[in-house]
Protein: ATP phosphoribosyltransferase
Organism: Ceratodon purpureus
Amino acid sequence: MAVAPPMTMQGGATGLQQQQQAVLPRSSYLGLQLASQPCVKVGCGRRSSAGLRCQVSPSSTTLPHFNVDISGAGKPIRSVERSTIRLALPSKGRMAEDTLGLMKDCQLSVRKLNPRQYIADISELKNVEVWFQRASDVVRKLKTGDVDMGIVGYDMLREYGEDDEDLIIIHDALGFGQCHLAIGIPTYGIFENINSLSELAAMPLWTEDRPLRVVTGYTYLGTKFLEEHGFKHVQLSTADGALEAAPAMGTADAILDLVSSGTTLRENNLKEISGGAVLSSQGVFVANKKALLERKEMLDVAHEMLERFEAHLTAQGQFTVVANMRGDSAEEVADRILNDTSYPGLQGPTVSPVYTNKDGKTEVDYYAIIICVPKPQLYQAVRQLRKAGGSGVLVSPLTYIFDEETPRYRQLLAALEA
């Protein structure tokens, strides 16, 4: 790969500006290139796109007595040990809204007195500070230990976490932000009959002088994915938004971006291809593994949050159905439910006597049965109960289903011991 040209600053670069310019080295990463301006951060040492690292020229020295780390990738510098537990949440966008919605549904409402605040608390979780951060910074600060736990999209965790073993997923399916990261190519021109990733890689057009140009915000994942699938000549570039316009403008051949419904791709004459999906993503609950191991109080908070999330998510779409049924005994009614209907409940029906006053005497003519039914099967369940002799059927949505112990917590403990 040719060395990236130095960035030209408006009005020319002189003095310290020239010293702070850096260039990207020739890639040894299977011919994958980065088409972007060089990193101009003093002493950054950060990973650049396509898995490369920015190299600071010898002349770009830091100021005396200052240790400058603009990238946020360095180790944290703390003057004192903190006793609080820091939870990082997305600060903007749909992911932020959905995260706060989940917290509220789990009785963990985030209390922020001023909308401009970036620090908040949760009354139900003592000693926990909430820090609102950009999604990428949530992951970066988890890596450095500046925050202990966080909620972020799985795509961001993989891109900025770079498979760091010190990041551990506590809950991998929070139920919002569902999408997938995928390659998109034009539906016209030389790509009209290209319908798979292997066909795209095999196109003879791609050479060292004319690589496949891919615009993306996911340079780490993009590099890794394309390398694993046999691409030899690829040029990755970054953009702040509107990636779908790049192929039509002639600045890229393909894009690598998040896809939800696919409508945006179609409206820009782009298409997905077979084998072109990098990963599926949704909101995940993540923690710094070292912090979990060293601080029991943090593990306790993680356990409580996990139980609340799991109880709420398990109950979503579930309904409690209560009906009265005549029967000779609770066992006889239970037998009817188990054998004459398709809805036995979670472990089985709850059956209890319904007491009535008949001529001054307390008698049992009915038994109340309680079962749990998924929403799509709700009406069918009611019909079956009535056919089995049920009446006075009551239906109400479930808010939480707490198990004896959430399997995810057992998995977390096993992962910490590994």
Observations:
- Residues 306 and 382 are 33 Å apart (CA to CA).
